[in-house]
UniProtKB/TrEMBL annotation:
UniProt lineage: Eukaryota, Amoebozoa, Discosea, Flabellinia, Dactylopodida
Chain residue ranges for the region called Disordered: 1-66
Organism annotation: Paramoeba aestuarina
Biased composition (Basic and acidic residues): 10-21
Coiled-coil ranges (or none): 99-173, 199-257
Annotated protein name in UniProt: Uncharacterized protein
Keywords, ordered alphabetically: Coiled coil
Length: 257
């Protein structure tokens, strides 16, 4: 049987079918299968590329976490905590997908190791052992990557729990503030009603006082007019009195004559 290649090195079957090519059938156990097996240099290059990619992913993840902590350091507001919680959940889903992909690759490697062990007689024990050693080394590297991804997932879950607690805390504070605001609003409405009632009472009192003032002013005006009339009558009386005295004086003069 021929070697089973990695998913990274294998060309997709759909592209071969579109181009009209057919999948090569693995030959029976033979020593000519070494032509189909990828070279050790290519295998090592792919492993280094994968390791470099995952190391870059880990470094990028660490930078994102550090940037997030510096950006949202100290006391978090409710909105910031919710946004960061959503971002961590997205990262957690992405990391879980990557872990599942790594597990699938590990299963492919284990399957290749099993097949190579079965092909030891056809390929030669020495070459098969060398290939198995490379695959086992790659399997160890993949296992380390999976462990790193698992560790990152655990850290992300811890961050999610911390942010959930903070969101709960700020939600409770927000509810308390809303309750306090509701109490203050009710007090404001009550005070506004009291002020309105007092304003109505004062308006009524002012109208009554204005009515009384108008009545007093009218009464004063009437008294003033009556006083003017009295003065006029008094003046006429005084004039008449003077006239009478003058007439009496004349009569006295006539009597003397």
């Amino acid at each position: 049987m021929g070697d089973v290649e990695f998913a990274e090195n294998a060309e997709p079957r759909e592209s071969k079918r579109r181009s009209g090519e057919t999948d090569p059938q693995p030959a029976a156990t033979s020593t000519n299968s070494r032509k189909e097996r990828p070279k050790s240099g290519a295998f090592r290059s792919n492993a280094v590329k994968r390791q470099s990619y995952h190391q870059q992913h880990i470094n990028r993840r660490n930078r994102q976490v550090a940037a997030g902590r510096s950006q949202f350091g100290g006391m978090l507001s409710s909105d910031m905590a919710i946004v960061q919680l959503a971002n961590l959940k997205k990262q957690w889903v992405t990391e879980m997908k990557q872990i599942n992909t790594q597990k699938k690759r590990m299963k492919d490697i284990e399957r290749n190791v099993t097949e190579l062990k079965k092909q030891e007689k056809g390929l030669g024990v020495k070459k098969a052992n060398a290939r198995i050693a490379k695959l086992e080394d790659h399997l160890d590297k993949m296992t380390g990557l999976v462990m790193d991804e698992t560790r990152e997932r655990e850290n992300a879950e811890k961050d999610v729990r911390t942010l959930t607690e903070e969101v709960t805390k700020y939600s409770k504070l927000y509810e308390d503030k809303c309750h306090r605001v509701e109490i203050l609003v009710n007090e404001k409405i009550s005070l506004e009603r009291q002020v309105l009632e007092k304003k109505r009472t004062f308006d009524t009192m002012i109208k009554e006082q204005e009515a009384r003032l108008n009545a007093v002013e009218e009464e004063l005006y009437g008294l003033d007019e009556a006083l003017k009339r009295d003065n006029m009558v008094r003046n006429r009386i005084n004039d008449d009195k003077k006239t009478i005295e003058s007439v009496l004086d004349k009569l006295r003069d006539l009597q003397k004559k």
